[in-house]
UniProtKB/TrEMBL annotation:
UniProt xrefs under Pfam families: TraX (PF05857)
Keyword Lyase: no
Protein name: Conjugal transfer protein TraX
TM regions (residue ranges): 116-136, 148-178, 190-213, 225-248
Alphabetized UniProt keyword annotations: Membrane, Transmembrane, Transmembrane helix
Domain of life: Bacteria
Entry annotated with the keyword Transcription: no
Species assigned in the record: Laedolimicola ammoniilytica
Length: 251
């Protein structure tokens, strides 16, 4: 995003680390608390072991509110990658590959069951948004093709029930189309997310952080950010199934 790109404090690498931390906080609530402690799914080793339920639901809400800021940061950085990559098709292919790699860990961490067809991981949403951007990039003078691709991607996101669904795809694409004016892109994206779900109002800190982006990539470990997603989900599932029961038993 071109305007005000070099006056900020945060590099792309810093924003990615921030998004990962926020996502981890969110998933501690969505996985460890909601799946393995609070909801007491029949196949959870912690079913029925929860003490103060109201307290832990409040903790969960705080974690989920904090985590709302992760998605807009990931969307913004995806758009930056789409603009600056030398091969957007390869970039999109990598996103699709990690979407499939991440689906088993996603289902296990957020449902303790596989397969879970009711919800697909966010990599699918990112890949669909990136695919729409690819078509826009290659449709100069024929914007209807980009709009058709956007519509198809949004519908597919809803049909496949990807994380954030059509709203997520629209946010990604709007950030790309409005990239020349970062403030406008972020404002429109925030409103769109909030309309899609009131909990997304808590994503505001993430959007404000993006105003501090300085346009620099920063030092980034190769592929770490891709692999962190499925690995941390598997880790949460393992903790929920094997570590938490042991800890609670000892308590």
């Amino acid at each position: 995003m071109n305007k005000t790109d070099h006056g900020g404090l945060l590099s792309g690498s810093t924003l990615k680390w921030l998004a990962i931390l926020l996502m981890l906080i969110d998933h501690v609530g969505a996985s460890l608390l909601e799946v393995f402690v609070l909801n007491g799914y029949s196949n959870s080793p912690l079913a029925g072991l929860t003490g103060n339920v109201d307290f832990w639901w409040k903790v969960d809400r705080v974690l989920r509110y904090i985590g709302r800021s992760a998605f807009p940061i990931f969307c913004f950085l995806l758009v930056e990658g789409a603009v600056h990559t030398r091969d957007i098709r390869r970039y999109a292919g990598r996103m699709i590959a990690f979407a499939f790699v991440s689906e088993l860990p996603f289902d296990l961490a957020l449902r303790n069951h596989f397969p879970w067809w009711a919800h697909q991981n966010v990599f699918f949403t990112l890949a669909l948004g990136l695919s729409a951007i690819l078509v826009f990039q290659r449709s100069a003078g024929r914007e209807w093709r980009g709009l058709a691709a956007l519509g198809a991607a949004a519908i597919l996101a809803e049909v496949c029930k990807t994380d954030y669904g059509a709203t997520g795809v629209l946010v990604i694409t709007l950030m790309y189309l409005l990239r020349e004016n970062r403030a406008a892109a972020l404002a429109v994206s925030y409103v769109l997310l909030a309309v899609g779900g009131s909990i997304e109002l808590y994503a505001l800190p993430g959007f404000l952080a993006l105003l501090l982006y300085n346009g620099k990539r920063g030092r980034q470990p190769k592929r770490f950010f891709y692999w962190f997603y499925p690995v941390h989900l598997l880790a949460l599932w393992g903790i929920g199934n094997f570590v938490l029961p042991y800890v609670i038993e000892k308590i």
